[in-house]
Fold this sequence. Notes:
Layout: H1 54-70, H2 74-82, H3 86-95, H4 98-112, H5 116-124, H6 128-137, H7 140-154, H8 158-166, H9 169-187, H10 192-204
Amino acid sequence: MGSPPRPSRTSPARGNRTAPAPPSAPQPPEAPPAAGGSRGAGGCPRRGAPGGGGAGGERGGAAGALASLAYGNAENQAAIREAGGIPPLVAMVREGTEEQKVEAAMALRSLAAGNAENRTAIRDAGGIPPLVALAREGTEGQKEWAARSLWNLAIGNAENKAAIVAAGAVGVLEELQRGRSASMQEHGVTDGLSESLAAALGVLR
Length: 205
């Protein structure tokens, strides 16, 4: 008696019939756009939809992506610095579009937070004067993220603190705080800019 036949895999029948195509991989859902300068859970910078198209919009989007990558991630902070990412962000704070300035200030804040080497690298790249100028002359969102950047640059770094003070930041931030305090008292609320100004002045004074 022979052994029972072994089951075998059959190939598709020849002719006009063909084997069905494998199912395509599911596509990830598209992330909803967020307004520039907004924050996600835990204060994490949220990448904003770049204003307009073209190279300018792409640069703003790239700066927003770097802000998110660097937030709370020491390896990414170091990798961005080593790849030469800090000088272009400083240039964007100085010369970029309105949206780019917000995104670049967000990125510098994320790079400086908890990273002593990046704090020094941002100062060496000339980042302090344009951030002070942005705090003085920018939109509300720009002022908030410039203040946050200056705050993080000054923490634990005496040279940065001295450079920020020498650039006139204390007077700029105090003037902003006076204006915000009057508005907040009138409406009985607080906002991100007021919190950022208080934190920055707390370190610089």
